[in-house]
Design brief:
The complex is a heterodimer. Chain A is of the alpha/beta class. Chain A contains 15 helices and nine strands. The radius of gyration of chain B is 26 Å and the shape is globular. The chains are: A alpha/beta, B alpha/beta.
Chain lengths: 293, 398
């Protein structure tokens, strides 16, 4: 399937993801060059959403691997179902089967637990494999991942080599908490996801929050933009903006200027640390509100 | 994985276009992009695709392909425009922004260097008046037991003999390595805390019918101390820069986790160029980088770049940040204070090494230094090797 860039942009919008042109280009390149896509950017700019939207766009399954420190191949690739194996050994011991036969039996597919990476290459139609926050995994895991991404086959000592049935579309995201290796970076296409501009953020809010009117969405987007310019420890992301918009709609607000009090109180949707909260007292939010509206 | 387009489509690209593309890849490589043959091939595939009909659609495509990190991403447009559209063509061969900014800084630099040399001249006079041994370290102190000892107490400004400079550099490297060895030993001795790893225990004991005989424990992964060094390479520091470059090379080489940055009017991440095993080559390259930029210092702005783009990645819970600078800042002190406060929140410890402390009667009066002082854990001299060695116990406590 060769989609054009404009098609991708439009279809992303259909599935509720408002992408900038550059991202659409990157997704189109993924199809053309069959390379994984590495997304970097601040927390909350919608990196994970890209993976979800890509899956929706191709109407394929999304397989997600959340990385964390200490993630090993048992959690990422495959594992034997030890409990069942032990049960099987006990049950067959009584039946007087030979040790070889038992071994043959307990190391068969029936006892294999598929983890995300193995699952991704054994699907009949290509899924989207989302490897989330790859920077949190250890360097050893990164090396292993690199091998998998280049060969798309896995060797399981007891079972033999498992070759990919289909090549998944791979999206990696990173928050930049650790420097990724050059080798991994070079394998991937790169896209830096920035906070959206006002217009696009307003569009995102209008698309994602039901029953919101366009003027309010624009006001909210402007307000968020102004808050991001303040000296905060953690800038509110798109996800927070959506939460806030939902809250305001739920409280039946039509115009931010009319309800400065509620605006200030609902800031808890955006500011997630005590420090940031104390940095935006009522006077500051009023000032920002005055500038925005 | 292979290029998706049939080779015939790629073959339709004219030789001229190929050459242009190869030239573009070469320029990107010169600018620090990591580009292999594979990437160039894929770029040909992009050229053969419909996107190539409009150059403006080509730019984001090539950017996604050739960039591997945010710094590449941010610089790509400039280089692309320079090469393909001929905007600012001359600059494309090198890092344009650095050159331009340097020119703009020129008047500033003059003032800066004049001020600095005056200060140095003054200090030298004070020094030579009542401290002969330092001045004549080259010959006069040779008769002492160990030439190393003499070297290590001598202010780096007074070492002029090339052999002695080399010896001092070697000593700095050794010092960096020995600091690391002592630090890691301490860590290993204090590591405790074991938990049972149930899954591995069961796995290991399948051969015993599931009776847990061999226990497998989970150990806490030790987090090694990470050292992040920010070296001021401005004109006012140039007497010391070469020496610190050597020291930093020793540190980056020896510590398992160390990152080095160089700053002047802007910040450059130099860990990669320091990892060269060939010491002289690495040091030369860096000394060259430092030299080319000896101008005004913008400590606040450089720290801001660090906080925004690098801090999250290079700083973890066991990180010490070491800033080597004389604190002469041409930017606003408020900016420096703000950035120091941000940095303070992130890291375990901030060490500020100031070569000027070694001078007699030095008081941290420079405005930048004043602004930064409240956020510093350790404010120490760094004018000779002894003062560097004295840092080790402070680092070990982190």
């Amino acid at each position: 399937m060769t989609l054009q860039r404009e098609d991708i942009s439009n279809r992303l919008a259909e599935v509720g993801y408002i992408a900038d042109r550059d991202l659409a280009t990157a997704l189109w390149l993924m199809e053309l060059l069959k390379r994984p896509l590495l997304l970097e950017g601040e927390a909350g700019v919608g990196k994970t959403e890209v993976g979800k939207a890509l899956a929706a766009l191709h109407r394929s399954e999304l397989i997600r691997l959340q990385c964390y420190e200490g993630l090993d191949q048992h959690a990422a690739l495959y594992e034997w179902n030890y409990q069942r194996q032990i049960l099987a050994i006990k049950a067959r011991e009584g039946a007087g089967e030979s040790a070889d036969a038992i071994e043959e039996h307990i190391f068969s597919e029936r006892y294999l637990l598929e983890r995300p990476l193995l699952a991704a290459i054994r699907r009949p139609s290509p899924p989207v494999l989302l490897i989330d926050e790859v920077d949190r995994a250890d360097e050893e895991f990164e090396a292993f991942l690199l091998e998998l991404l280049s060969d798309f086959q896995v060797s399981i000592p007891e079972l033999g080599v498992v070759k990919a049935i289909t090549i998944p579309r791979v999206v990696l995201t990173s928050n930049g908490s650790r420097e990724l290796s050059d080798a991994l970076r070079r394998r991937c296409l790169y896209h830096y996801v920035d906070f959206p501009e006002v217009d696009r953020e307003a569009k995102i809010i209008a698309t994602r929050v039901p029953n919101i009117d366009v003027a309010l969405a624009l006001q909210i987007a402007r307000m968020i933009q102004a808050i991001r310019k303040e000296d905060l420890r953690k800038q509110p992301g798109v996800a927070e903006a959506l939460d806030w918009a939902t809250t305001l709609v739920g409280l039946d607000i039509r115009d931010l200027r009319q309800e400065p009090e509620i605006v200030h109180e609902t800031m808890i949707c955006l500011l997630k640390t005590h420090e940031d909260r104390s940095r935006l007292p009522r006077e500051v939010t009023d000032r920002l509100l005055g500038k925005v509206a | 994985m292979t290029v998706a387009l049939p080779t015939s489509a790629i073959e339709t690209i004219s030789g001229g276009a190929r050459e242009r593309l190869a030239g573009f890849a070469r320029i990107l490589r010169d600018n620090g992009f990591r580009i292999g043959l594979k990437e160039t091939q894929d770029a040909l595939a992009i050229l053969a695709s419909p996107a190539a009909e409009r150059p403006m659609a080509l730019k984001p495509a090539l950017r996604a392909l050739f960039s591997t990190r945010h710094s590449d991403w941010a610089r790509f447009d400039e280089i692309f425009d320079a090469y393909w559209l001929g905007v600012g063509m001359r600059g494309a061969r090198t890092l344009t922004s650095a050159g331009d900014r340097q020119k703009k800084m020129a008047p500033n630099r003059l003032i800066e260097s004049a001020g600095a040399s005056e200060a140095q001249g003054l200090a030298e006079q004070v020094r030579s008046g009542d401290d002969d041994s330092a001045e004549t370290s080259g010959k006069g102190r040779r008769k002492e037991a160990s030439p190393h000892e003499a070297l290590s107490a001598t202010d780096m400004r007074y070492i002029v003999d090339p052999d002695e400079i080399a010896a001092a550099h070697a000593l700095a490297g050794r010092l960096a390595r020995s600091m690391r060895a002592r630090l890691t030993r301490r860590e290993r001795a204090s590591r405790k805390g074991l938990r049972l790893d149930l899954r591995r225990t069961i796995h290991r004991n399948i051969s015993r019918g599931g009776v847990p005989v061999d226990l497998v424990f989970r150990r806490r992964k030790p987090k090694p101390l990470r050292l992040v060094i920010l070296l001021d390479a401005s004109g006012s520091m140039n007497l010391y820069t070469a020496f610190f470059v050597r020291f930093i090379h020793g540190v980056v080489d020896a510590f398992r986790e160390a990152e080095a940055f160089l700053f002047h009017t802007r910040l450059a991440h130099v860990s990669a160029s320091l990892r060269d095993r060939d010491v002289t080559r690495a040091v030369d390259r860096l000394a060259l980088m430092a030299q080319g930029v000896g101008g005004g210092t913008r400590i606040g702005e450089s720290l801001s770049t660090f906080n925004r783009w690098h801090a999250k990645r290079v700083i973890h819970s066991r990180t010490a940040v070491m800033i080597v600078s004389d604190g002469y800042d041409t930017g606003a002190p408020e900016e420096l204070a703000l950035q120091m406060r941000r940095l303070r929140r992130r890291c375990r410890r901030i060490i500020w090494l100031n070569p000027l402390i070694g001078w007699r009667d030095y008081a941290p009066l420079a405005r930048g230094m004043q602004a930064a002082l409240p956020y510093i854990d350790l404010f120490a001299p760094a004018h000779n090797l002894d003062s560097l060695a004295a840092l080790e116990p402070h680092l070990a406590r982190i």
